[in-house]
Amino acid sequence: xxxxxxxxxxxxxxxxxxxxxxxxxxxxxxxxxxxxxxxxxxxxxxxxxxxxxxxxxxxxxxxxxxxxxxxxxxxxxxxxxxxxxxxxxxxxxxxxxxxxxxxxxxxxxxxxxxxxxxxxxxxxxxxxxxxxxxxxxxxxxxxxxxxxxxxxxxxxxxxxxxxxxxxxxxxxxxxxxxxxxxxxxxxxxxxxxxxxxxxxxxxxxxxxxxxxxxxxxxxxxxxxxxxxxxxxxxxxxxxxxxxxxxxxxxxxxxxxxxxxxxxxxxxxxxxxxxxxxxxxxxxxxxxxxxxxxxxxx
Length: 297
Hints:
There is one protein chain. By secondary structure, this protein is an all-alpha fold. It has a single domain, classed as ABC transporter involved in vitamin B12 uptake, BtuC. Helix 11 packs across helix 12. It is globular and about 55 Å long. The mean pLDDT is 86.
């Protein structure tokens, strides 16, 4: 069993700063140190193979997933005595489930139609958003969505830390095992199939993993900004790296630094942590452009 109290005490011992004293900041730090580099590493494939719109569709499908969760609690179950507990438990579950369903649906449909991939994604994007708005307006749920729109990393619990750790471990294993296959599929699907790669299975697996990472990251930065955690560090890394491996390393490093610096700035400036993290990433992207212009390949 992971001793989170011991880890927090250890962090306080090596981080003698005011911002590292509150437990909620240490919890947020633990999550961001794990999650930001993971999102950034996955973002390399998202950027290289133009999947930003796909991840955006997944993050916005979370909106409808949360709406469904609130409807289950407040309309179908009607449990007013324990409604605050179920409001915390059910929407995050339906959020993840709905994200997985949308990711699977997009992946399946784009293989069964001759439509361009971005068109298929656009249809799903519009449908899930419209469905969520329709349900929300029907049951007057707008006031319950702020923590999902903007994120709430400073309310991270021990359970959130453990779930994030499990997700990060699964992502590391997946990338270690499937990195070369995914790169080959992205470069040439037919060539990958001719070499015995089960392209459909690997594509589904990556789509589902990406959906899990996106939906679980919503607690950190909110559904309005979650795609930026994938795209911005990877875009910066593409300006700096000269190889696929280098792009992964740069992306993870930029994601980690942006996450930690953004979290600390949010504490001192009293700004939204998710927005501060993304703005730090954007600053890194601007710096990467300047470095690339100064050292053209």
